[in-house]
Amino acid sequence: MLSVKENMIVEFSAPLLEKFAEVVTRYPDGRQKSALLPILHLVQAEYGWLSVDAMDKVAAYLNIRPIEVYEVATFYTMFFLQPKGKYVLEICRTGPCCLVGAERIMQHIENKLGVKEGEVTTDGLFSWRGVECMAACGFGPVLQIGPEYTFYENLTEGKVDQLIDELKQKAQTK
Amino acid sequence: MARKLLLAHIDVPGIHTFDVYRQKGGYRAVEKALKSMSPDDVVEEVKKSGLRGRGGAGFPTGMKWGFLAKPEGVPRYLVCNGDESEPGTFKDRFLMTHIPHLLIEGMIVSSYALGAHTSYIYIRGEMMPQIRIVEKAIAEAKAAGFLGKNILGTGYDLEIHVQPGGGAYICGEETALLESLEGERGNPRIKPPFPAVAGLYGCPTVVNNVESIAATVPIVNDGGEEYAKIGIERSTGTKLISAGGNLVRPGVYEIEMGLSMEEFIYSEEYCGGIANGRRLKAVVAGGSSVPILPTHLALKTAKGEPRLMTYESLADGGFVTGTAMGSGGFIAFDEDQCIVRNTLNFTRFYHHESCGQCSPCREGTGWMEKVLHKIEYGYGDMSDIDLLWDIQKNIDGNTICPLGDAAAWPVASAIRHFREEFEWHILQPEEAQTRNFGLVSEGVMNPE
User: For B358, phi and psi rounded to 5 degrees?
Assistant: First the structure.
């Protein structure tokens, strides 16, 4: 669902607009709409989520209607339409990972962070959610953290604790 | 030792870089194809090789290439399908991570064969690290003169671009992928027209899986006939199998077609048997969509012959006692795993991933999920099993794309082969909440 309660007014920086321009060159003339997914990824990496204002400005940039951006952003699961924690832990919850303990890991993360799936911790640092198969079934359980989609394999409760502690420290030192 | 065509140099340090890949004989196929072969010669070699699409459908690649329309003045496109997301499958991620230049080399050879001058590699958005690796490989190849204008002085021009997906299983279906590449929702198109006639931007297009494109490199290097010498019947060459689940050594293996399933699971060269000293309960041989098989049918066909890792042997017995090669996503279930729970999990996956265009799939997957949830959590009724059977039957074959079939088959096969386990969940709900059913052969319905 698009966020109507919260909006974030954005102004794309010159370096970001330069990246947009490079993406558009990949497609034939008049086919700039193909740049939509790559550009939405760039916007989300910059702001953490896609506000209505950000999507409207992407539409204006690509010379398409805002609804064309909304319909794409709502279709693909990687795009966040609500503000999320600084670090979103995405754990694979599909069959093969469940055979090797993914459900246990998700329960552990829920306990450790003290928030339910999709919610944000009070310090604004963490969210978590189960996602579908991440194509790493031989190394499960696995989780990823955007916007670089850093990947963590063969998870155990201990590894998860260590990761969360590291991320907390990283946030403090910044 | 089995022959390795794709992963022969996988353990060489630095093989992901252009220089090392080149030292190991990389880009010879580009030199050979562009300098001494016509595009049609390359198509001919691929036809001779018998290569079949490695993404799941198993359609002969050379034949697919042969269908490509070639109207004058209209660009043609090659699009590589790197939207790997069939549960159990992780071979393309492995290949792109460790030996990205094999994919780029294959892309150049294949684009040349098809007469494409702009090609796209569509990689699922979650694989951002792999996108970076492949983009770097493209830049390296370009700097070395293997991409761009007038490649190796032959007059052939080619640019390759990487396109990220957005997190949608359905975009692995080729027409949904093309929609996505055009900046649209991933709704599969009604066929015909097939992409070979009207694909990307309405132009003739070939969509091939990462592994299929990589396989064109040894085919060009050694010739199609040489490639076809490996394997049995219409299953030629080697296949990447990604093995996961309860195995001693899960991972990606390159097998020669024709290896027995038993050897693949138990030998030290491959998976090394079932983890933690457990026994094998069931196998999903080709990604979550293909029918699940109990151990006895996984290791031997209904005729009692050893089950081989070939398109034909895996399909032996049809969907009654056989399964399919699919994408090569191999999942092993040990005796502690619950078939009902796994079927629920897979069904939830398909419900989540249904694009919503066709009613049978949109409604049916959610309905099956609800019924399976009821059974798994101890509120099932015996009539629910028949209901499930009825729903899956009404999805199968009644949708625009194969996602509907893919959602129906795991449910059908689970009921067909593990009906006792469903019944046990319904008749002994309290017991089913506290322990697993185990192996059918142990007579759990009437424990001693």
Answer: -105, 130
